Amino acid sequence: MVTVDQVLSTLGTVIDPDLKKDIVSMGMIKDVEINGNDLKFTLELTTPACPFNDQIEQDVRAAIAKIKDISKFDLKVTAKVMEGRSLSMDEMLPTVKNIIGVASGKGGVGKTTVSVNLALALAQTGAKVGLLDADIYGPSVPLMLGMGKSAMEVDNNKLQPAESHGLKVVSFGFFADQAHQAAIYRGPIISGILKQFLVDTNWSDLDYLIVDLPPGTGDIPLTLAQTIPITGIVVVTTPQEVASNIAVKAFGMFQKLNIPIMGVIENMSYFVCPNCTSKHYIFGKEGAKKMSETHNLPFLGEIPLNPGIMEGSDSGKPVLVTDPNSVLSQAFMVVAKNVAARCSMLASQLSEEMKAEVATQK
Ligand SMILES: Nc1ncnc2c1ncn2[C@@H]1O[C@H](COP(=O)(O)OP(=O)(O)OP(=O)(O)O)[C@@H](O)[C@H]1O
Ligand SMILES: [Mg+2]
Fold first, then answer.
1. Is 106 annotated in some ligand binding site?
2. Atom of ligand 1 nearest to the CA of 307
3. 109 belongs to an annotated ligand binding site
4. What is the number of the ligand closest to the CA of 312?
5. What is the pTM of this model?
6. Top mutation candidate among 279, 310, 328 for ligand 1, by most atoms within 8 Å of CB
7. CA angle at residue 344 from 124 to 361, to 5 degrees?
8. What is the pLDDT of residues 5-38, one digit of tens each?
9. What is the number of domains present in the chain?
10. Are 156 and 119 within 8 A, CB to CB?
11. Domain that holds residue 73
12. Is 113 in the pocket of ligand 1 (CB under 6 A)?
């Protein structure tokens, strides 16, 4: 006769490779049903985009196979993204589980290209994803998603995001008349617009909200960091930028504000020659990886320099949409999975901290 205890202690040996904790104490095993020697339960993963999901499922099956008496085993695998934001400070955007800012030191390193394709890659894993174009001075998300004719509606005093390829999208670019005048707006007005986009928008339930920031450490990144609790920031850099250390300055500001730096993405890392198909590291190899190691930050992946990525961005047809199985899309998919894994880790740390806080209050 199989017992619940036996099942849970066996499953307690399965460790989530990312979170380094066993899946039972993480609450990933749900709805255990034992009927004679038949076993049924749900494995609830922390995100559909985790790079280790297949491995965890295999480990679960291998662990259960060790229990002799089981005659039938029925496993359901689901995913529920963890809450990666501390909402104790306020209750803003309670339906958005993770907010991820995409920042850089310098302009033109590919933040918007990465934000758009990262959002699409996360959505392809089954997550609910929003994309906020916080570059009020130079909104380019609508162009990159080919959303020329889209608009945002106002309903019940809340902005309704436009939609594209399953993403909820908010951008100052939808206000075509104002967008070209944004350059003359001053800090407080710009901050006000961003605050409205964040909190006066009906984002509904989202697993991830990606916020595409303008370059550097000006008013807009500061407003994002100070308006609402966010999960963290990813920094996009290029091999050339690594050499000049500008990316390091960008994450310095967020660290001072106590915003977690989730990791570094290197864009335009290498060029794949169409004739010889080998990777050419034109500007040096693994610069961003070494930089992240020096600063004790996770490296989230490298994206090649490729005319297809540029054409996709500039024509409003991102590569994740036109060719989701291509090598280029796979590079974005790796980044998306690493970002999702970092969110789960930060969420797990946060829940530990909150538990510890509750314990000290008792
Ligand atoms: N991996 C890549 N391969 C080829 N071209 C790219 C790549 N990434 C971005 N680009 C191109 O580089 C240009 C700048 O990219 P993008 O607008 O995404 O940068 P950004 O950091 O958001 O710029 P800004 O600081 O102005 O907001 C665009 O024309 C884009 O198509
Ligand atoms: Mg941009």
1. yes
2. 4
3. yes
4. 1
5. 0.85
6. 310
7. 145
8. 788 889 999 999 888 888 988 888 888 888 888 9
9. 2
10. no
11. 4-79
12. yes
